[in-house]
Amino acid sequence: MYSVFRNLAIIMISAKFFGLVARKCKAPQVVGEIIAGLLIGPCLLNLVHTSDTIEIFAEIGVVLLMFTTGLGTNLKELLRAGPIATLVACVGVAVPLGGGTLLYSLFYGFSAVGSPEFYKALFIGTIMTATSVSITVATLQELGHLKSFLGTTIVSAAVIDDVIGIVVLTCVLGASSGTGTGLGKVLLNTVLFFVAAIIIGVVCHRAMKWLDNRNPHTQRITIVSMAFCFAMAYIAEQYFGIADITGAYIAGIVLCSIQDAPYVERRVDISNYTLFAPVFFASIGLKTDISGLTAEILLFSVCFVVIALVTKIIGCGLAAKLCRFSWGDSLKVGVGMMTRGEVALIVAQKGLEVGVVDPVYFTAVILLIVVSSVLTPLVLKALFTKMPPQPHPSQA
Predict the structure, then answer these.
(1) Quick check: is 12 in a domain?
(2) In whole angstroms, what is the distance from residue 367 CA to residue 379 CA?
(3) Is 11 part of any domain?
(4) What is the pLDDT of residues 230-269, one digit of tens each?
(5) Is 72 inside a domain boundary?
(6) Which residues cross the membrane (predicted)?
(7) Domain limits at 132?
(8) pTM for this model (two decimals)
(9) What is the CATH number of the domain that holds 150?
(10) Which residue, among 169, 311, 296, 295, has the nearest Cα to 242 in the 3D structure?
(11) Is residue 81 part of a domain?
């Protein structure tokens, strides 16, 4: 049991050190933290292995990251970005889904619709649909563009993307098993969750405003806010089958307009960026193990990564352009949506459980997560430096 303290010490020191190195190199700190996980994990030095405790710390980190993202959201900007984010998310799911299916078919042959091989190809596309916004959020926050209309659009689209991804996953798994898609149940649970979130949100918002007026800038505001965050994350996952990070993000949205929202955001950031967030970003590197790679799987994995990144950029970028973003900002939206993380891992794991995808392709998923996690912050920073965001026509 006590080995967890040793592992946490190694993770925190290495993540901080390489985060500072990344900053010195004018790269986002999260890049350094992910590289730290690669170095100390099974991929290289083999000092630390992922464990249940580290996974829990990492999950808390991503939940708190999404909570503070919601807290820092401009509600008016979010409402304005809603329709645009929905279109970006829909196209951003459809294009990778088709790209992944085509990739598998080109490698292993085209199969008849409804055959087991067809569903394997379709499932490879399903893995590509997942978007992880946590790394993009950390990067946008570091660059100072998280609360902008562009940043709000990316975060909102990623949350909607997550919901659409759950629907697609359910349909593919249901169709491949021959038990029915269960689409109606998924849609019903999604609608019920958002209805419940609105009801709970209205009640909790009023209660928090009352508490905030009576106890401004006190620890109890932060404690109650974090409790609400964890409760919403639990409710979303346990009762509605929606990702816990979606519940946490909505909890932040509910509280973003109270007077002490910036105060709570700062206090949560202190604990999260000291411990939980570095563990989350380092854990991405810890999960990487390239010992089982063969030449064929390596080639497929490289193509898998390239197609997954390109199709997200094209799909989300073109959708953003249709919504009257400039070409530069459309590219930023596409790049911001190309990160993959815990959702892609969950999707792949579900496929392994039911036998739709073979275990060897898990390597491709890990490689995609690592490459997109390292590449996205670097490209985003370069884009924002060379092409500052332009005002959207809706802001005129």
Answers:
(1) no
(2) 18
(3) no
(4) 999 999 888 987 778 788 888 998 998 899 999 999 999 8
(5) yes
(6) 6-23, 30-48, 54-72, 84-106, 118-137, 149-175, 187-208, 220-236, 298-319, 360-380
(7) 54-184+260-395
(8) 0.73
(9) 1.20.1530.20
(10) 169
(11) yes
